[in-house]
Amino acid sequence: MVPPHLPAISRPMYSAERQMHERRAKAKSEATLDTLVAMITDMRGEISSLRIEVAALKQPSVATNLLVGEPVTDSGDDGAVVLLKAELHGLAKCIAETKLEIAAIRPSGPAGSDDHITIVANELDAVVAATEDATQSILDSVEAVDTMAQELRSHVSNAYAGGILNDISEKMTAILEACNFQDITGQRITKVVNTLKYVEQRVNAMIAIWGEEAAANDISSPKEDLREGDARLLNGPQLDGIGISQNDIDAMFG
User: Fold this and answer.
1) Are residues 202 and 115 in the same domain?
2) Is the pLDDT of residue 66 over 50?
3) Do residues 5 and 25 lie in contact, with contact meaning Cβ atoms separated by under 8 Å?
4) H helices within the chain, ranges in order?
5) What is the pTM of this model?
6) Which of 2, 109, 218, 230 is surrounded by the most beta carbons within 10 Å?
7) Domain stops at, among 71, 88, 105
8) Do 95 and 89 touch, CB atoms closer than 8 A?
9) SS3 74
């Protein structure tokens, strides 16, 4: 039987021919093996280089270089490795910038005074509470006026005056129906508040991954207030316990 690496021929092969074909097959096999070994060696070198690069990215000095546009380069790397390193540099820069932006949302002052998400949620809660109080006051007043109109109707015999009182009762009913806006807007604002709280939970989760201390160190300095004149002084109504009390104002003019 002819070995698989030998060509098929119609006549018996001489021993010299068989030895020549065997030498050629062996040389070809050794060449393929050498090529494979060389490729594996190159791949190991590239993997080692990538491991070193990833470890370097974890160092603060390297992160600083990435932010100022000074990536670490290696003149011995081929094109594919250089491209991969560039992508890693870009990813590290994006992560660092994201950390800075998320840290800016977090409070930088006492008692969470600069926590923007919490401020917005509290302001919306205050809007719901204020509209609810105002609506309840309107309802109480409307009911009182309607009761007085009905009582007055029982003492009026004039048809014209009775018609006016009926019109007053109809208008009071229209006001009561219009006050339903508070319930609808309150539900919608509550949805917005819940969404903000969900975003805040996700932000807190990311900060917990990086560490509270690291996030605090990443907080950028507060931006300067560039408003001028009355725009700098008028900040709108304040939440309970935050704004200046009436007693403080009276003390200033006392």
Assistant:
1) yes
2) no
3) yes
4) 15-57, 60-67, 79-105, 116-153, 159-178, 181-210, 212-217, 230-233, 246-253
5) 0.48
6) 218
7) 105
8) no
9) coil
Which among 28, 27, 6, 4 has a CA at the least distance from the CA of 15?
Answer: 6
What is the rounded distance in angstroms from the CA atom of residue 190 to the CA atom of residue 178? 20
The residue among 88, 20, 18 whose CA lies nearest residue 58 is 88
Among 103, 64, 110, CA closest to 212:
103
pLDDT digits (tens, 9 = 90+) for 176-226: 888 888 888 888 988 988 888 888 888 778 777 776 665 556 555 555 666
Nearest-5° Cα angle at 234, 230 to 239: 175
Whole-angstrom Cα distance, residue 71 to residue 88? 10
Total domains in the chain come to 2
CA distance linking residue 137 with residue 120, whole number of Å: 26
Contacts 24+ apart (CB under 8 A), 30-38: none
**Which of 19-23, 108-112, 221-225 has the weakest average pLDDT?**
108-112
Same domain, 32 and 63: yes
